[in-house]
Amino acid sequence: VADAIKTHGGIPFEMRRTLAVKVFEKTSFYDQKIAEYLKTRGTGVELLNLYYEKVQNLRYGENPHQKAVFFRDPHNHYPNVTNAKQIQGKELSFNNIVDADASLELVKDFTRPTAAVIKHTNPCGVASADTITTAFITAHKVDPMSAFGCVIALNRECTKEIAQYIGKNKLFVEIIIAPSFEKEALELLGKRQNLRLLETGELRINPVERDIKTVSGGILVQTADQYVVTEKDLKTVTKIKPTPEEIRAMLFARNVVKHVKSNSVVFARVEKDEASGEEVEVTTGIGAGQMSRVDAVYIATHKGGERIKGSVLASDAFFPFSDGVEEAHKAGVTGVIQPGGSMRDDEVFKRADELGLSMVVTGVRSFKH
């Protein structure tokens, strides 16, 4: 401003307009916060104002003919894809951001070292182990064909061994998002100039996170689905009770299926990693985004093949008929975890008994659209 006055003898109109816009943006946000505070002391929200600041223009949107801009919530300081620091690689695309977000939110739900391999927001493979290296290698081996061009999310520091595995096997990876990267890992991954590396810092859950979806002419706002099913949520509904190992696999599968597009099912089991000797929880088959639940089961068993044997099945919603359970039994599952709540629950429970399966219900549905 001082330079403009000195040069022009006053403030040019365009500069005044730009400054006025900035002032009104700030004051309107301040007014919004006052209104929100008062609403918490009285009536509910009738007018929702959303305040986001621009991060960058994107090359294009979900498809090349769409234009797109990336915005962020300046008051959300939790570890997330928006606040992640890009330390290497090409500029993030619209789809990169969406996939990185989906993968990071998945691994946040796990306390053990966990790795997720993601394509189009759905997991190709997920694994938890004693070390993040074993978790990643196990997760990638679940479905290496689908993992071509994947996003990798880790809930622990990315190790040198992970970088070596990626290089040795010449894996095509778009993004790795992790709390941090070992120095040696950065040196190895740095040889791939196009590989995007995102560093989040130590992962934490934002307890007031909102989930906002757009519809034509409006938005839908809900609290984020942060419910993590634990053993206390389980109710056995069959004569056969699940073993401790099956319960581990059930809880793991249930907390993965929550992040898969509906209708979805996830098969998983506990197994011993031959190389490290670690016990790992790992997905063995995933069926995503199907209109029919039995079709989701069929796809997952087809993808998993022989590895499905000895697994358990998690479903994001109840089984409306027993056909999904029957299809899973053909593939060799030993147990099922599902929310329950169908009009035909008793028929499904009875069929599980007849097939010699253990079944637990949680009372918690996890649709994702």
Structure keywords:
369 residues; Cytidine Deaminase, domain 2; 3 domains; twelve-stranded mixed beta sheet; globular
- H/I helix tally: 10
Fraction of helical residues:
25-40%
Outline: globular
Strand content: 15-25%
How would you describe this protein?
The protein has 369 residues and is an alpha+beta fold. 33% of the residues lie in helices and 23% in strands. The protein has 10 helices and 16 strands. The chain has a 12-stranded mixed sheet, with helices on both faces. A hairpin with a 2-residue loop joins strand 4 (114-119) and strand 5 (122-128). It is globular. The model has no long low-confidence stretch (mean pLDDT 93).
Protein topology:
Blueprint: H1 2-8, H2 13-40, E1 53-58, E2 68-72, E3 85-88, H3 94-108, E4 114-119, E5 122-128, H4 132-142, E6 150-154, H5 160-168, E7 173-178, H6 183-189, E8 196-199, E9 210-215, E10 218-223, E11 235-236, H7 244-257, E12 265-272, E13 279-287, H8 293-304, E14 312-315, H9 323-331, E15 335-338, H10 345-354, E16 358-361
Parallel strand pairs: 6-7, 7-8, 14-15, 15-16
Antiparallel strand pairs: 1-2, 3-8, 4-5, 4-6, 5-13, 9-10, 11-16, 12-13, 12-14
